[in-house]
Prior knowledge:
2 copies of one chain form a homodimer. Helices cover 73% and strands 7% of the residues of chain A.
Amino acid sequence: MAKTRRICHLLLRFLAFAATLAAVIVMATSHERASIFTVSFEAKYTYSPAFKYFVIANSVVTVYGFLVLFLPKESLLWRLVVALDLVVTMVLISSFSAALAIAQVGKNGNSYAAWLPICDSVPKFCNQVTIALIAGFVAVIAYIILMLHSIHTIIDPLLLRKN
Amino acid sequence: MAKTRRICHLLLRFLAFAATLAAVIVMATSHERASIFTVSFEAKYTYSPAFKYFVIANSVVTVYGFLVLFLPKESLLWRLVVALDLVVTMVLISSFSAALAIAQVGKNGNSYAAWLPICDSVPKFCNQVTIALIAGFVAVIAYIILMLHSIHTIIDPLLLRKN
């Protein structure tokens, strides 16, 4: 039973790691050049602070996720992982929300502010951003579950010891 | 000692409640009409999905914060508050990040996407949004502290009982 739980936990950590890695790669490789009439036009993630924040946050979390995968079961650092899982979840939620807000304007525009949608001109860029956001969302969900599990594991032994 | 801690806790809860309430009121009352040449132009929070999300999220959290203020000390619902504090913190972070991302585009624009800044035309609207975002940020910080305190209080009695 304990072994199954541990395998599930490791699989979820691997999924979270893979999701953040995918989000970084897909977002970072997204750029497209389009020309409207004679004006050449380029779309790149570095042109938006929100997308840059998304890539940086997911990169840091990818490194963290990779390191945690190799943490031995008995390590005392697992107590630190509980706190770090909390921080990581909050950072991921924040970067995902900011990137989603900008992507929404990119897709639908905002007629009141006269911001035109750009997805018609650069559909490939938009698709890649969408895929990166989906990967980012999977990472957020995975880290929320991991965080709840982490909190549960520090409370659980204490509860057991109480009886 | 326990009494001082309880007063600090209540004060922080009140600060969090006041901050979310201020964020809602300031954001919801922000609208300005400007005219550029002959074109009349209006800025309102409802014109941006991110700002709408910010107002809705902060409203819900304001109601929650108000109810928790009147929860008796011995209530069993405090265990639920731990979980709700976690959810509330995540929702607040998400809505704040999304609104900040849009506000940043409103202030600086994005020359690559040809989105022009709107703050020069509607400075009063921009100021109100900035104040709402500052209040939202204070609320985020307050709820992060409250969440850490909540987690601590469920672990603490268990740790004490252990010895």
